[in-house]
Amino acid sequence: MRKYLIPLLCVTAVILLGVSIFLFVRNQGLSTELADLNQKYSQTQLELDRLRQVLDNEQATQEIPIYFPRKPQSVDNPEVSFAVMRNLLIEDLPQAIMEVYATGLLDEELASGYYFPSGDPEISLNKKLDLRGNSVCDGANFTTDVTENTLTVKFCRDLMLSGVLADASVQDAMKRSLLGIEGISKVIFLNKDGNCMFDESGLNLCLDKR
After folding, report:
1. Is the peptide bond before 72 cis (omega within 30 degrees of 0)?
2. Per-residue model confidence as pLDDT tens digits over 175-196
3. Tens digits of residue pLDDT in 104-127
4. pTM surpassing 0.85?
5. Burial of 74 (0-12, 13-18, 19+ CB in 10 A)
6. CA–CA separation, 111 and 104 (whole Å)
7. For residues 80 and 74, what is the distance between their CA atoms, to the nearest angstrom?
8. pLDDT digits over 2-58, tens only?
9. What sign has the CA pseudo-torsion 193, 194, 198, 203?
10. d(CA 179, CA 67)
């Protein structure tokens, strides 16, 4: 019996070694497959994150028509204005639209005849609102507030204009842009003191709720 013990042990050792090698190789293969799956998952996750970011950016901005006077059509007719397109954040669209007027026209738009009347008699045409002086709103050019269907825009700095036609032209262009916002049917412009902008009567008629 003893003479068969050593060969039996050798055979058992060989079998165990073979099983160990098999299990090692299989585990190595599984580890490789698992690593491949993890890599593919990571790549897929990165792609999903990228697509989500693109979608969020598209949802956060929208192409909006912004109206400006244009020569020669608007020079003698303040109720005529024309749209240029801007890609704006829609989270606070009234504020974003008004900031376009503070930033102004692009050079190519100015060259195409779009303009703003200037408050400086030495300059007949301007590329943006002629805002001057310090802000009364912590540095902002404007504040905007929506109550029901009425949008109130307060100018936080002095707006310089050059006359009645210029007043009407600027007011018409800005109002057309702001009335394009869904749910807005009335726009009120106030100066930095809280009085009606563009109201020569001094009666604050824009605040009349009748």
Report:
1. yes
2. 999 999 999 999 999 999 999 9
3. 999 999 999 998 876 665 555 678
4. no
5. buried
6. 13
7. 5
8. 555 565 655 565 576 665 665 565 666 666 766 666 676 667 776 666 666 655 555
9. negative
10. 11
